[in-house]
Amino acid sequence: MAKQLIFHTDREYPFSITKLDRKKLYGWKDTEAYDSNGEVCVKADIDSSGSFIIPRGGRALGILDKDGNWVEKKKLKAVYKDGSSATRFPSSFDQPIQLEKTVSTEEFLDHSIESVYILKPGEDGEELLAQVKKTDGIFTFSFNYHPGYEASHAFLIEDKGNLFVLIGYLSQFEFIRFEQMAEISMEEEEEDFEDDIDFSMM
After folding, report:
1. Residue 35 near residue 21 (C-beta atoms within 8 A)
2. How confident is the model at residue 199 (pLDDT cuts 50, 70, 90)?
3. Residue pLDDT, tens place only, 42-77
4. Is the CB of residue 132 less than 8 Å from the CB of residue 28?
5. Residue by residue, what is the 3-state secondary structure of the chain?
6. At a CB cut-off of 8 Å and minimum separation 6, what does 71 contact?
7. Edge-to-edge strand list for the sheet holding 162-170
């Protein structure tokens, strides 16, 4: 069974989700290269010395301690900048999502959206759809597809009878202004053509 998001207002409303991406909307093209024998070429890497060919899947990231010893990922511990243990957030699929907080359209537009999911309603899903449509503002909540230490911002939006979840982050806009107008010199500098190459001489 596909994963479901369960939203809670006056009761629980389960929804299946499907990610929307450009491939599903517009299709895609694959480019393949062939050798002189008609065999498909496979991309590979070469090490820095140029002596070894590394096939696809032959490279991975590793973690070393300060002494150069290999460290297993499961032994790592996430901490904040002050050294305190970081809080690990559960997956949004593991517990009901409380729809309590809303934001204005202006606040929503301050976010950069990275992922879009369309919701397929389960039993009584139309009731939640009606609530979203009449709500003054846009429902927002924290979202983690997998358990992690940093949750994304999510928004529940209705459009043409469908519900969508938009996932993103707050854009850090920085407004700047000129404290002083710069002086622009209108004097033309003489160009030095001595080093220019005359291609007609070749």
Report:
1. no
2. very low
3. 888 888 888 888 888 888 888 888 888 999 888 888
4. no
5. CCCEEEEECCCEEEEEEEEECHHHHHCCCCCCCECCCCCECCCCEECCCCCCEECCCCCCCCCECCCCCECCHHHCCCECCCCCECCCECCCCCCCEECCCEECHHHHHCEEEEEEEEEEECCCHHHHHHHHHHCCCEEEEEECCCCECCCEEEEEEEECCEEEEEEEEECCCCCCCCCCCCCCCCCCCCCCCCCCCCHHHC
6. 63, 64, 65
7. 97-98, 4-8, 12-20, 111-121, 162-170, 152-159, 138-143, 102-103
CA 202 – CA 193 distance, rounded (Å): 18
Sign of the CA dihedral with 64 first, then 69, 73, and 75 last = negative
Tell me the pTM: 0.67
